[in-house]
Amino acid sequence: MNDKAAAGLALPVADKPAAAPAAPAQVPLDREQAILDFNRRVLAQAERDDVPLLERLRYVTIVSSNLDEFFEVRFADYMEAVRERNTAAARRELDALAASAHALIDEQYALFNDRVMPALAQAGIVVVNHAERTAAQRRWVAEFFEQQVHPLLVPVGLDPSHPFPLVANKSLNFIARLSGRDAFGRENGIAIVKVPRVLPRVIRLPDALCKKGQQGFVLLSSVIRAHLESLFPGRRVEAFSQFRVTRDSELAVDEREVTNLRQALRSGLSTRHFGEAVRLEVVNTCPAELSQFLLQQFALPEAALYRVNGPVNLVRLAQLIDQASEAKDQPQLRFAPFEPAWPGKRLPRERSVFAALREGDVLLHHPFESFEPVVAFLREAVNDPQVLAIAQTIYRTGADSVLMDLLLEAARRGKEVMVVVELQARFDEEANINWAERLEAVGAQVVYGIVGLKTHAKLLLVTRQEGAVLRRYVHLSTGNYNPRTARLYTDVGVLSADAALCDDALAVFHQLASQTRTRRPQRLVTAPFLLHRRLVQHIEQVAEAARAGRPARIAAKFNALTDAGLIDALHAAGRAGAKIDLIVRGACLLRPGVAGVSDNIRVRSIVGRFLEHSRVMYFRWGESDDDEVLLLSSADWMGRNMFRRIELAWPVRDAALRQRVIDECLVPYLHDTRDAWEMHGDGRYRRVDDNGVSAQQALMKKYGWT
Fold first, then answer.
1. Out of 3.40.50.150, 3.30.870.10, 3.40.50.1000, 3.50.50.60, which CATH number does the structure's domain 527-702 have?
2. CA dihedral in degrees (608, 614, 619, 620; nearest 10)?
3. In this structure, are strands 236-247 and 277-283 parallel, antiparallel, or unpaired?
């Protein structure tokens, strides 16, 4: 590592975080609150005038999507604890978390209504409600309703023979209170209208019906609301509301009790949409009698009711972003296009990937560099008759995947294909089950990892006959094998022919298939066996160097820091005098800048155009280059990653590549003053500067963006 880079890592980016009393450091930050705080940082992107308008709306929808998962998984655990224990402590925890969630959602809708939508309207993009529609627009909407919507709506009038219907997770529904009598002369006063998912939630009006230069949209909920009474001929709708219920969506499968995990999960998927209710959303005009009726039907407490000033599902407004067009005379509405660079000098397009790797490792930094070289690596392996075997782990690859298609083709061609499919990758279970079944159908060997441990490692191994020997080539990554998200997430991958690294990769696949003990890896550091211990060891080496007065430095970047053992080790190193910088995108339970505890630790979070996803860890404990290590990893610093998952970390041994990782994945983020937030001793984040340098933008420019 050169002196310049070492100095860059040591430079402070801003003043040391404001010190807090020592006592709060002993009170761990709450993980759920930390997740909500991260979403506040995402929501803050929607406030920024320097972010294009449609992208500001996209950040609003991203927060809604994140909160849906938060309620489905994290909040659901608190609800279950109250149901099972019903203690005062459990209820207090639930109430505190619900209060924070309510506050965040109120902030989100206020920003949506008061800032984002007015700004879009000023730019000519208007969501037209019923009261604002012209006569021509109302006629068009009425025709659309009659032709496209009404035939798919079947209201259910509630009575003893028509009980409250089963409402699917996150689906759009209406509740109506009716006057008059039904066709059989009875007074069933409540009706439910379930809205099919196949209907578009955002509909663009014909340009001819809009003002010049204006793009008009109507929401499906508004269309149904305007014509709700037509669903009940001869009766009057006296009160109504749209509503949406969020349910516990964790698939509860005891792997120790099932004989076929795939079949058990397939069965569980059929009931996922109908788990225990955890949240009820209604519009803020919903009459109390209707909201109370719904709370009773879903067995929810008052704190689970969310009255929102707008659509109950802001996620679906992503359809507006997709449909909106940009005119030449309009301000830029979306981020300027960015095409990831091809690593031409190190991996020319026309050259064999295998030949290039025999000359040295290739490092890929996504999304600034293309994911296509990874696809090219696998494609060449499929087409090369000298390739005998391919093994790959699958965590989140998506329902439509060129990589999976290539593995299918490899199996059809008679190559030995082994795929470790993680069936319990949350919300990707169905796609992964489908891929597993298709792979097995063409003769691939499919295994599902180890009981009780999710396989989160990202690993692709190719075995090739070269003369009298078998030679292996490997790809390792901090991110998933998903070309779509590789354009949206920051990750680092390495293609290598390093014999020791490939031998380790082969041993990992053997262990995942056979569950037998393997030799100690030479290069790879694996969880749950060694990774936690190795990280603590490196932190302690840095602490010892600090006590001895030698250079002592830690700079690490990951998505979350919640493991108590690692936090304790970092506290000890900081107290010893080591300088520690942590770049933590999401939940971080370590308080920096606490007097006598974490004075030398700084925590920052980067929230920008791309989702920060790479895991990079740098440790230095002396003067010599032998006294440093840089690791890339699939693992965050969380207990589940260290002890309940199959994870990998590996050192970057090539000096030039190691320097490149430092220069691209650490230093720019430590100097970011545009997208950076710093945590202070009170656990709160503050933006560094709204108009400074963006690490992501600097890297985009480095790779050819103008």
1. 3.30.870.10
2. -60
3. antiparallel
DSSP assignment string, 304-324: GEEEESS-S-GGGGHHHHHH-
Rounded distance between C-alpha atoms, residue 419 and residue 552, angstroms: 41
Element holding 83 (H helix, E strand): helix 76-85
Structure tokens at 355: 């030949």
**Token pair recorded at residue 594:** 């606490």
By annotation, the residues acting in catalysis are: 456
What average pLDDT does this structure show over 188-213?
94
Give me the residue label for tokens 């109504």.
240
SS3 545: helix
DSSP for residue 148:
I
- Angle between the N-to-C axes of helices 76-85 and 88-111, in degrees from 0 to 180, rounded to the nearest 10: 150
pLDDT in tens, 315-357: 999 999 999 998 766 778 999 999 999 998 889 998 999 999 9
For 31-50, b/e burial (b = at least 16 CB within 10 A) is bbbbbbbbbbbbbbbbeeee
Is 3.20.20.140 the CATH classification of the domain at 128-323?
no
Place of tokens 């920060």: 612
How many alpha carbons fall within 13 Å on the CB side of residue 4? 3
Axis-axis angle for helices 402-412, 372-383 (nearest 10): 10
**Tens-place pLDDT, residues 28-46:** 478 999 999 999 999 999 9
What would the two tokens of residue 218 be? 């109507």
Q: Where in the chain is the domain with CATH 3.30.870.10?
A: 356-523, 527-702
- Which bin fits 124, alpha (ψ -120 to 50), beta or left (φ > 0)? left
Locus of tokens 């969501």: 127
The CA–CA distances, whole Å, from 1 to 585, 627, 655 equal 26, 10, 7
pTM check: above 0.85: yes
Which CATH code, of 3.30.870.10, 3.30.710.10, 3.50.50.60, 3.40.630.30, is assigned to 356-523?
A: 3.30.870.10
Alpha-carbon gap, residue 224 to 230, rounded angstroms: 9
Structure tokens at 335: 């981020």
Q: How far apart, in whole angstroms, are the C-alpha atoms of residue 404 and residue 439?
A: 8
Q: Are 493 and 475 in contact (CB under 8 A)?
A: yes
Residue 588 to residues 352, 566, 686, Cα–Cα distance (Å): 43, 12, 14
Percent of the chain with pLDDT over 90: 76
Enter the tokens of residue 282.
């209604």
Write down the H helix ranges in 388-530. Answer: 402-412, 429-441, 499-514
pLDDT at 217 (0 to 100): 98
**Looking at the chain, which residues constitute the CATH 3.30.1840.10 domain(s)?**
128-323
Q: Which residue has the higher pLDDT, 25 or 645?
A: 645
Q: What was the pLDDT predicted at 1?
A: 44
How much of the chain, in percent, has pLDDT values that exceed 70?
Answer: 92
**Per-residue model confidence (pLDDT) at position 609:** 97
Give the three-class secondary structure for 57: helix
The reported pLDDT for the residue numbered 262 is 58
Report the candidate in 642, 623, 608, 634 with the shortest Cα–Cα distance to residue 552.
Answer: 623
What tens digit of pLDDT does each residue of 450-461 get? 878 889 999 999
Q: Enumerate the H helices of 371-428 as residue ranges.
A: 372-383, 402-412
Neighbours of 3 (CB within 10 A): 7
Q: In this predicted structure, what is the pLDDT of residue 321?
A: 96
Per-residue pLDDT, 18: 37
Structure tokens at 618: 């740098």
The CA-based dihedral angle spanning residues 244, 192, 79, 91, taken in that order and rounded to the nearest 10 degrees:
100
